[in-house]
Design brief:
By secondary structure, this protein is mainly beta. Helix content is about 5%, strand content about 45%.
Length: about 240
């Protein structure tokens, strides 16, 4: 190959590729339609970026599949990577450029740890088995907006367990209400087969995540966003409009 390119950076609507209906968007983006990084994000980052990268996939919530082999991949630009399951080494491998590493791991709940060596320094990343969904978390990307009727804040919505860890298998429905100096203008979850309205007030999380977009009014004040889900602890966030 003399060269190549990625098509596309983001998933996008209207061209469901490689799968057709009920898919409603492409699925080969590095980021999903909400801008949440996919696993491929870390692959490209590891070879096209300058910063150290060490990423494990998939998640480690496989209830009911205890003892079955799960392919565990690592994307990294470290020189070597060693994988551990619940403190036991599963072996060290040498990383070849533009490639990835793979282990066949018999599933047991607990903790996967990857330890990488890069330029004499040690990197470490962990993936843990989470508990059941317990709460909703709201994380606005901005705490202050301009009172121009156009400014927006993107709120990452997470369904977490009792220890505050995002539950990657959760699909809970989250309902939103917005009061004060702004309005809710959009919802999304990155699911390429989701048919929920982007203009509604409720969204199911996908991989434990969804996104809410709020827009400022033309008057200063405070936007209060509340997120609730049956059986889970609710969340609230305040955004100043100036």
């Amino acid at each position: 190959m003399s060269g190549g390119f990625v098509w596309s950076g983001f998933d996008y609507r209207g061209e469901p590729t490689p799968f057709q209906w009920p898919a409603v968007s492409s699925q080969y983006g590095v980021l999903d339609t909400c801008g949440f990084p996919k696993d491929a994000f870390y692959y490209y980052q590891s070879w096209w970026g300058a910063q150290p990268v060490l990423h494990i996939l998939p998640h480690w919530n496989w209830h009911g599949q205890e003892g079955k082999e799960i392919p565990v991949w690592v994307y990294s630009n470290c020189e070597t990577v060693e994988l551990f399951l619940n403190g036991k080494s599963l072996g060290m491998q040498t990383m070849n450029r533009n490639s990835h590493l793979e282990w066949k791991v018999k599933y047991a709940p607990g903790k996967l740890v990857a330890k990488g060596k890069r330029n004499g320094k040690t990197l470490e990343t962990t993936v843990k088995t989470t508990g059941k969904p317990a709460a909703v978390v709201l994380e606005p990307d901005r705490k202050a907006l301009t009172a121009d009727g156009m400014d927006i804040s993107l709120l990452t919505v997470k369904v977490v367990d009792a220890q505050g860890r995002t539950v990657p298998t959760s699909t809970n429905a989250v309902h939103f209400s917005v009061a004060g100096a702004g309005q809710l203008i959009g919802l999304g979850n990155g699911d390429p087969a989701c048919h929920e309205s982007d203009k509604g007030k409720q969204r199911n999380v996908f991989n434990g995540l969804c996104l809410a977009i709020v827009q400022s009014s033309r008057a200063p004040g405070t936007i209060t966003v509340q997120a609730t889900s049956p059986g889970l602890k609710s969340a609230a966030a305040s955004i100043q409009v100036r």
